[in-house]
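hey m, so remember when u said the tokens were messed up on ur end? i reran from scratch. heres the input so u can diff it against urs
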Amino acid sequence: MSDTIDFFSMLADITMATTAVWAAFKANDWFKTKRLESAENFYREVHNLHKRYYSAIQYVEDSRRIFDSQYGLHTPISEPKDKSLQWEVKSNSYKIIAELDYLASSLQMMDAMGNKLSPKSASLVSDMMEAHGRFCNDVMNFNDSVWKVIRAGITEENIPPTRGYVNGDYMAILTSMDEPVRISFELKEISFKDFYLHETTMQSVMTRLKSLIARTGKNRT
């Protein structure tokens, strides 16, 4: 009886493995297309990073203009402050996030689709993403600072120190944006072919098949 059960269990495993191979080949064209698209999207975002930063900086400058219109050096202290401008500043935050998230999202999708960076690009991408994260934090810190000031308002005696830390946050942006852009320009010199490790179709199929068989074996134990 035990031999019969083992036999049918083996047949089930063989059937599952055969089905997996067939399905893998059947789906390979679709998967390969989507995988290539995700690789192209990240590569494109690396090339367009300076354009994303330029767009983000425009929203930063708009928030800075709003701050200066209320608490700038040349703004009369007695002039009534327009707290409704806080919503324009908050809107800038969402627009900034939308621009700066493209790079991280495309990297996550590229990785999820199984693309692997080559040794030539991997360390540069890692450095760029760290620098990009710092730039994103600096941008959001500045915009949040402006939003809080416009929303809550500040007393006359607190205007000078508030100008000081808001301007400090702004200068941090100008400093932190240089490194990720510089690294992205280094990455632009790497061709698409050399940017990624390329796995053959059969290697991809066998990798997925081995993973399925391994999971099946674990479920049986």
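this time it looks ok to me. Residues 39-204 form a domain with the Four Helix Bundle (Hemerythrin (Met), subunit A) fold (CATH 1.20.120). if urs says something different then somethings off w ur setup not the seq
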